[in-house]
């Protein structure tokens, strides 16, 4: 379990600006041997959550470099959640990596939406000629293309109409007593970053961890991604009784083992 006495280290702030808005992203970088493990959190999640915190404790114990941060409008970061989109959170991720892990080899660890961000980040690095920086990728319940594949199809006609008319729809949450806004901009801009429909390249080994009792990202969605990663080495591990969060002690041990294996034999 997480140690309440564990020191996660100081927060660094990375400035970002886009479309007339400016904000600072809160990040924590733990120095250590490479490759640097980069945590990419889920939709409306924070870098102090259980999986990221366990990986930070593992990194501290093993002397590994570890980087985690909050997207715009999330956690300790500044900025507006409601004006943010997949493209903005991707740019946030690239900005943090450029500012705090420049030139370092990387193991990307993406949870839920962070899995989609990890795949998009790999594509962005490859477009810059930096595909060789990726030593591996671990994806937990990867919500690839979730705005189009998982969110939009589940919305009622009334919810869609409300979103188009007002710019937002308040979605009930299984994790909070209060609903939260899903914006029209999030859905529309998300269509610019869809990956399914063509081969997906990571240019590195991939290990997918997926709960088979996940109500948010069905295991068949993860299987679809696995089958699309035809050109890169990939392994998928199903947790038969696992939910979406995969934050039980046995799940966290599985995550740490998968991340640790990605760094074996790699230098950075």
Question: What does this molecule look like?
Answer:
This protein has helices at 50-62, 86-100, 113-127, 146-151, 157-166, 184-190, 219-228, 249-263; strands spanning 12-18, 21-30, 33-40, 64-69, 106-111, 134-140, 168-171, 180-183, 206-211, 234-239. It is an alpha/beta fold. It has a single domain, classed as Rossmann fold (3-Layer(aba) Sandwich). The longest helix has 15 residues, at 86-100. The two termini are 29 Å apart. The model has no long low-confidence stretch (mean pLDDT 94).
Task: Offer a quick outline of the entry.
With 268 residues, this protein is an alpha/beta fold. Helix content is 34%, strand content 24%.
Helices and strands, in order, run as: EEEHEHEHEHHEEHEHEH
CATH superfamily: Alpha/Beta hydrolase fold, catalytic domain
Strand order of the largest sheet: 1-2-4-3-5-6-9-10
Strand content: 15-25%
Number of helices: 8
Whole-number count of domains? 1
Q: What's the overall geometry?
A: globular
- The number of E-state strands comes to 10
Helix content: 25-40%
Helix/strand-derived category reads alpha/beta
CATH architecture heading: 3-Layer(aba) Sandwich
Main sheet makeup: 8 strands, mixed
Q: Outline the low-pLDDT stretches.
A: none
Straight-line distance between termini: 29 Å
Please, what is the average pLDDT? 94
The first-level CATH class name: Alpha Beta
- The radius of gyration is 18 Å
The CATH topology is given as Rossmann fold
